């Protein structure tokens, strides 16, 4: 290669990289189907993944890279019709260990025509039990919808169609550990949760409807290594966000660990919130 050609070649590589960073990431490049023996498949040149669950196994993918903070977006279309017992997930987790960190979005299927539940949880230093559940205000099986996680040193924000539904603040000042030193991978999975998922395991999976398939597309990660601005890194909670959070809580929250007296002695971060009346 002549020098000039080499320079042009390098330049176009750089250009291609910045375009990639600005648009959707590519499943082929950024994730691997790691589980399910062929039940997870990548299509459309890497823009679409399907994950399938049958009576023998579920399936899943995970990102090749680990990220310390970032913004993580994906569009998902969930298992239609009778999906009771199925659990479809999009989550971040550090490597397995007794002190791992994790940020969960889990979609619990339901009987035909009944609402899906979005189950969210945050683990820090191996401790979870911070569930909040919401019902969705649309049918998540008809179309793709966008689910996002912003994770920065100050807070974790979970979004549905760009509407913030949950925020978990860094409350280290009052002794609550925060996820801030262990990098995490992105995961998507589908599995059978009939022992647990639908009304606490009362409704079992109807395997006559199997295989069950969920779709993921337009996966996008903005991390510390991405080119360009990083608005997510300092993303705070605006008045508008606060209004949306209140809206989600009033109209769509169906479970909140902060108010479950049967399960937990109230957590410090819950006290704080009530005191400041912020949420
Ligand atoms: C399923 O639908 C019922 C209402 O038909 C609702 O009470 C329940 O929370 C929904 N979600 C799950 C996971 O069972």
Automatic annotation (TrEMBL):
<dbReference type="InterPro" id="IPR008264">
    <property type="entry name" value="Beta_glucanase"/>
</dbReference>
<dbReference type="InterPro" id="IPR013320">
    <property type="entry name" value="ConA-like_dom_sf"/>
</dbReference>
<keyword id="KW-0808">Transferase</keyword>
<dbReference type="Pfam" id="PF00722">
    <property type="entry name" value="Glyco_hydro_16"/>
</dbReference>
<comment type="similarity">
    <text>Belongs to the glycosyl hydrolase 16 family.</text>
</comment>
<dbReference type="InterPro" id="IPR008263">
    <property type="entry name" value="GH16_AS"/>
</dbReference>
<keyword id="KW-1015">Disulfide bond</keyword>
<protein>
    <recommendedName>
        <fullName>Xyloglucan endotransglucosylase/hydrolase</fullName>
        <ecNumber>2.4.1.207</ecNumber>
    </recommendedName>
</protein>
<keyword id="KW-0134">Cell wall</keyword>
<keyword id="KW-0964">Secreted</keyword>
<feature type="signal peptide">
    <location>
        <begin position="1"/>
        <end position="24"/>
    </location>
</feature>
<keyword id="KW-0052">Apoplast</keyword>
<dbReference type="Pfam" id="PF06955">
    <property type="entry name" value="XET_C"/>
</dbReference>
<dbReference type="InterPro" id="IPR010713">
    <property type="entry name" value="XET_C"/>
</dbReference>
<dbReference type="InterPro" id="IPR016455">
    <property type="entry name" value="XTH"/>
</dbReference>
<keyword id="KW-0961">Cell wall biogenesis/degradation</keyword>
<dbReference type="InterPro" id="IPR000757">
    <property type="entry name" value="Beta-glucanase-like"/>
</dbReference>
<comment type="function">
    <text>Catalyzes xyloglucan endohydrolysis (XEH) and/or endotransglycosylation (XET). Cleaves and religates xyloglucan polymers, an essential constituent of the primary cell wall, and thereby participates in cell wall construction of growing tissues.</text>
</comment>
<keyword id="KW-0732">Signal</keyword>
<dbReference type="InterPro" id="IPR044791">
    <property type="entry name" value="Beta-glucanase/XTH"/>
</dbReference>
<keyword id="KW-0378">Hydrolase</keyword>
<keyword id="KW-0326">Glycosidase</keyword>
<keyword id="KW-0325">Glycoprotein</keyword>
<feature type="domain" description="GH16">
    <location>
        <begin position="1"/>
        <end position="216"/>
    </location>
</feature>
């Amino acid at each position: 290669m002549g020098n000039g050609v080499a320079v042009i070649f390098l330049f176009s590589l750089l250009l291609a990289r910045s375009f990639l960073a600005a648009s959707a990431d590519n499943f082929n490049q950024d994730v691997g189907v790691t589980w399910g023996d062929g039940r997870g498949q990548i299509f459309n040149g890497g823009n679409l993944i399907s994950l399938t669950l049958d009576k023998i196994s579920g399936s899943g993918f995970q990102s090749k890279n680990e990220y310390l903070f970032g913004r993580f977006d994906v569009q998902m279309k969930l298992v239609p019709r009778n999906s009771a017992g199925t659990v479809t997930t999009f989550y971040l987790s550090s490597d397995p260990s007794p002190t791992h960190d994790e940020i969960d979005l889990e979609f619990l299927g339901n009987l035909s025509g009944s609402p899906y539940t979005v189950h969210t949880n945050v683990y820090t230093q191996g401790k979870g039990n911070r569930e909040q559940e919401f019902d969705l205000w649309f049918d998540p099986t008809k179309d793709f919808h966008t689910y996002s996680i912003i994770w920065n040193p100050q807070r974790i924000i979970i979004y549905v169609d760009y509407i913030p539904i949950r925020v978990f603040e860094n409350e280290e000042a009052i002794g609550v550990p925060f996820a801030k030193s262990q990098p995490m991978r992105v995961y998507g999975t589908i599995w059978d949760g009939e022992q647990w998922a639908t009304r606490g395991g009362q409704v079992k999976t109807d395997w006559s409807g199997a295989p069950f398939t969920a779709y993921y597309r337009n996966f996008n990660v903005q991390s510390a290594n991405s080119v360009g601005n990083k608005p997510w890194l300092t993303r705070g909670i605006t008045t508008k966000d606060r209004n949306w959070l209140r809206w989600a809580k009033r109209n769509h929250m169906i479970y909140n660990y902060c108010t479950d007296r049967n399960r937990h002695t109230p957590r410090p971060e819950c006290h704080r919130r009530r005191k400041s009346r912020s949420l």
